[in-house]
Write a structure and sequence with these properties.
By secondary structure, the protein is of the alpha/beta class. The protein is 46% helix and 17% strand. It has 34 helices and 33 strands. It has an 8-stranded mixed sheet with strand order 14-24-23-16-17-18-19-15. It has an 8-stranded parallel β-barrel with strand order 26-27-28-29-30-31-32-33, surrounded by 6 helices. The protein has a 5-stranded antiparallel sheet with strand order 1-2-7-5-6, sandwiched between helices. α14 (358-371) packs antiparallel against α15 (376-382), α15 crosses α19 (532-544) and α33 packs across α34 (872-885). It binds adenosine-5'-diphosphate and magnesium ion (2 copies). Adenosine-5'-diphosphate is lined by residues 41, 94, 96, 105, 109, 111, 243-246, 281-282, 338, 340, 349-350.
């Protein structure tokens, strides 16, 4: 019989500790903390395997589970000395969800379960604190009604607000035992009214209801959205944790809090967190009262008055700090912790590897390697390559004018500008229409996830550094300012008010997640400064990686940026971009519209010096590094004039009538230009175009070699080859021109000729093609289009749905379709190398900057990947991680 229940705490263990696949993240870490002697309230975990079985069996529980749960409860009763449902001295439990990976706010938790009209009296007597007992009962009904019974939680909150207002209170801690008793009666009335049945009094009914709700929440809409955004498979399931309650709401010597062992925003080695005296669980993150700082230093730095935990509860704080250190040493990573103090006794309720900003991830990884806690290779593996993106982008220009509206908490760094929007749906809609938006909310909840994802930045009026908005924004890499208390949102008027000023929906706002400032209008930005930590990690990554990293660049400015980021060459220089320049386009059009070779040659002669100058500049910047230059690729019609004035310009330059040109332009029309007269087909039909380009390349290379001594290494790339014969013809053209130029100049130069592999036929016939090619560069954009038969420009309409329905795991234009396109790449690599063992292999499609695709490239042992300039560091790190994983 499969075991589903695993006990922990009180010196008992059923194993499974650290096995998050079995027990979920929360459960496995609770078991692990208990096993290393930390104070954990006793409990048990129902494994994730039960979640799948629950759904398989039509949302029902097998009898065996009921027996196992009874044994689990007996364990808790034995350790605590209390009995579940005992009217005199009741055991209360929490029912907590916990999937393999933490899904913040996605799954619901019920606290204080086991209270009913009888047991609440027992709790009042044994605790000697009736206020506490009734506070716990009203919390329980409120949560149970929301999470398990799915009733309107707004009406419960309203009742609480009214209860406070009626009595002239602002804080819920001001409510007395009798006030709370009345509130409980009201709550029960609400349940009766909305559910049509009285609030369940049987403690076992309560328990099974809650367990079912946890499993049920795995299939809730918001959990599904989160899974989709984070690539979490639906079949993982969640575990359920049932654990003895400990109480932070037992008066002034009790408290609850959340903490990080290091600063999750900046990465500094300082305890970081918030706590609330006389409060329970959710209160800290819910922003009901403003939480207090954990350390005296953080309080002083913030200029806050209420005592920090270090000051208010020095002894327990000392114990907590010791636990932080134990946990960091044990897990060898920064931890995110939940704790509760019950009448001066510390209890640990959760630990997990803490979410952090990219900046903090970098600093923590480098610091931990330097502290000797982890190795340099581990440090390299610790930083999410994709998240590095956040560090490589601009921040607010410190000199730019700022019209500061207000200041909140610097919850997630980075700067963002966009139109203010006040709800998640609007954020999603306007962003889908191409507008940059800032989502402004009083506070966010899991229902807002899609809007937070669509927004450039997030601004909230309430909530601290560990509020939902802050945690989720940091995880998503979105700038966030939270707790900007001065602002209020009028959802009806679609207006936000702050300090006597009004901002209408759609007005531009800028937020600075590093300072907490909120500004009107959009503020200028500056390039990032890459700190010492970044340099150190990149150095370690470079030591660990095998593949080279090149850039896709065609302007000297891009080349310079890319080299600054560590590019080791150019993997793709698209020559056609140079043709669009206003000064040249007329000559380009004259060339295209010429009716014969002589006409084309006249126009090409005008372009030659221009292209030569372009290449010379690029070769200079690249200073002797290899540069792959692709000969003309796009369909010619992309360059055609459309305006009358443009036709007139070309007519004058070519000395031909406008009517003749128009007729010629019409002839060039293609039904499906992406599969038309483009790529090497241009070179086959009009070899003079490739001749001109080859000449420009070799002349420029010799110019630079003579001037600087850093001889460029041109790699001339023939696009869209399907057959070996195409490549052979084009290679002959390039080689002939090279010989001519070398003879004219009396100097030779090393160069390569190769091809893009971007058609399935080319991949399959790579063995033949490699006879003529000295390198292959996988053009995975076109290879994806031609393999899948999907046009990248028309895919938006259905691709989202395809990913949603799991037809492709991710957008195949973003992350390589390893199964299909990847198989063609590995076939081509294998067959190419069989012909020519020293064949140089690289990738130059968009995928060259995507960590998952880079991992694949390491698997087929490409020599290099090539990415856009800003993604070069991401590619360096991802290439190192790919090498280390093998
Ligand atoms: P989440 O995953 O949303 O953080 P948790 O299961 O961790 O949900 O619980 C929500 C809150 O309730 C947390 O603050 C947690 O510390 C608190 N909590 C959970 N179980 C207990 C318990 N047995 N005693 C006291 N507080 C608890
Ligand atoms: Mg938690
Ligand atoms: Mg292509």
């Amino acid at each position: 019989m499969t075991q589903y229940v695993y006990r922990f705490g009180g010196g008992v263990s059923d194993g499974g500790r650290g096995d998050r696949n079995l027990l979920g993240g929360k459960g496995s870490n609770l078991a692990e903390m208990a096993s290393i002697g930390l104070p954990v309230p006793p409990g048990f975990t129902i494994s994730t395997a039960m979640c799948a079985r629950y759904y398989d069996e039509g949302e029902a529980f097998p009898d065996s589970l009921r027996q196992e749960v009874a044994q689990g409860l007996a364990h808790i009763e034995q350790v605590t000395g209390k009995r579940f449902g005992d009217p005199a001295d009741p055991l209360l439990v929490s029912v907590r969800s916990g999937a393999r990976v933490s899904m913040p706010g996605m799954m619901d938790t019920v606290l204080n379960l086991g209270l009913n009209d009888e047991t609440v009296e027992g709790l009042a007597t044994t605790s000697g604190d009736p206020r506490f007992a009734w506070d716990s009962y009203r919390r329980f009904i409120q949560m149970y009604a929301d999470v398990v019974l799915d009733l309107d939680h707004g009406s419960f909150e309203e009742a609480l607000e009214v209860a406070k207002e009626d009595r002239g209170f602002t804080l819920d801690t001001e409510l007395s035992a009798d006030d709370l008793r009345e509130l409980v009666a009201e709550y029960k009335g609400l349940v009766d009214q909305q559910w049509g049945r009285p609030f369940p009094q049987g403690v076992h009914d309560q328990l099974w209801g809650a367990v079912g709700a946890v499993f049920g929440s795995w299939q809730s809409d918001r959990a599904k959205v989160y899974r989709r955004l984070n690539d979490i498979p639906a079949d993982w399931g969640t575990a359920v944790n049932i654990q003895a309650m400990v109480f932070g709401n037992m008066g002034e010597t009790s408290a609850t809090g959340v903490a990080f062992t290091r600063d999750p925003a900046k990465g500094d080695r300082a305890y970081y967190g918030e706590f609330l005296i006389n409060a329970q669980g959710e209160d800290v993150v819910a922003g009901i009262r403003t939480p207090q700082y954990l350390t005296a230093k953080a309080r002083a730095d913030a200029g806050a008055k209420p005592a920090s935990m270090e000051e208010a509860m020095p002894e327990v704080y000392g114990e907590l700090a010791a636990v932080f250190d134990t946990l960091e040493r044990h897990y060898r990573d920064m931890q995110d912790i939940e704790f509760t103090v019950e009448r001066g006794t510390l209890w640990m309720l959760q630990t997990r590897s803490g979410k952090r900003t990219a900046k903090a991830a970098l600093k923590i990884a480098v610091d931990m390697a330097e502290e000797g806690l982890i190795t340099r290779d581990e440090a390299v593996l610790r930083v999410d390559a994709q998240a590095l993106d956040q560090l490589l982008h601009p921040t607010l220009d410190p000199k730019a004018h700022r019209d500061v509206l207000t200041k909140g908490l610097p919850a997630s760094p980075g700067a963002a500008s966009g139109a203010a929007v006040f709800d998640a749906d609007t954020a999603e809609k306007r962003s889908a229409a191409g507008e940059a938006v800032i989502l402004v909310r009083t506070e966010t909840s899991p229902e807002d996830i899609h809007g937070m994802h669509a927004a450039r930045g997030i601004l909230t009026a309430r909530g601290g550094m560990t509020s939902h908005a802050a945690v989720v924004a940091r995880g998503m890499g979105r700038p966030c300012v939270s707790g900007a208390g001065a602002l209020s949102i009028d959802l009806k008027a679609r207006i936000m008010r702050v300090g006597g000023r009004e901002v209408a929906e759609g007005d531009l706002l800028t937020i600075d997640g590093a300072s907490g400032e909120v500004m009107l209008g959009s503020v200028a930005t500056v390039e990032p400064e890459l700190s010492g930590d970044f340099g150190a990690l990149m150095e370690w990554a470079d030591a660990a990686r095998r593949m080279k990293v090149r850039c896709n660049a065609e302007t000297p400015a891009d080349c310079r940026t890319a080299r600054g980021f560590g590019a080791e060459g150019i993997g793709l220089c698209r020559t056609e971009h140079m043709f669009f320049d206003a000064a040249r386009i007329t000559a380009v059009r004259q060339m295209i519209l010429a009716s014969d070779e002589a006409g084309r040659r006249t126009a090409l002669a005008k372009l030659l010096p221009e292209q030569r100058a372009d290449f010379a500049e690029i070769f200079e910047v690249m200073a002797g590094l290899p540069c792959t230059i692709r000969l003309l690729d796009p369909p010619l019609h992309e360059f055609l004039p459309t305006e009358e004035a443009d036709f007139a310009d070309v007519a004058e330059a070519a000395g031909v009538a406008v009517e003749v040109l128009k007729r010629r332009a019409a002839e060039l029309h293609e039904f499906n230009p992406m599969l038309g007269h483009r790529g090497c087909r241009l070179g086959v039909t009009y070899p003079e175009i490739y001749e001109m380009q080859a000449r420009a390349i070799f002349e420029a290379a010799l110019d630079v070699a003579e001037k600087s001594g850093d001889a460029p290494i041109p790699e001339v790339m023939i696009p869209l080859v399907a057959t070996a014969r195409e490549l052979d013809l084009m290679k002959a053209v390039v080689d002939r021109v090279a010989e001519q130029v070398f003879t004219e100049r009396g100097r030779r130069l090393e160069y390569l000729v190769g091809t893009m592999i971007e058609l399935p036929r080319a991949a399959l016939r790579a063995g033949d093609i490699a006879h003529g090619a000295e390198f292959f560069s996988f053009g995975t954009n076109d290879l994806t289009q031609t393999t899948l038969g999907v046009s990248r420009d028309d895919a938006a309409r259905f691709l989202g749905e395809y990913v949603e329905q799991g037809i492709y795991a991710r957008d195949p234009f973003v992350s390589l379709d390893v199964e299909g396109v990847g198989e063609l790449v590995s076939i081509a690599a294998e067959r190419g190398r069989a012909t020519r063992p020293d064949l140089k292999l690289g990738i130059c499609g968009e995928h060259g900057g995507d960590p998952a695709s880079i991992d694949f490239c390491e698997g087929v042992r490409l020599d290099y990947v090539s990415a856009s300039p800003y993604r070069v560091p991401i590619a360096r790190l991802a290439a190192a991680q790919a090498a280390l994983r093998r």
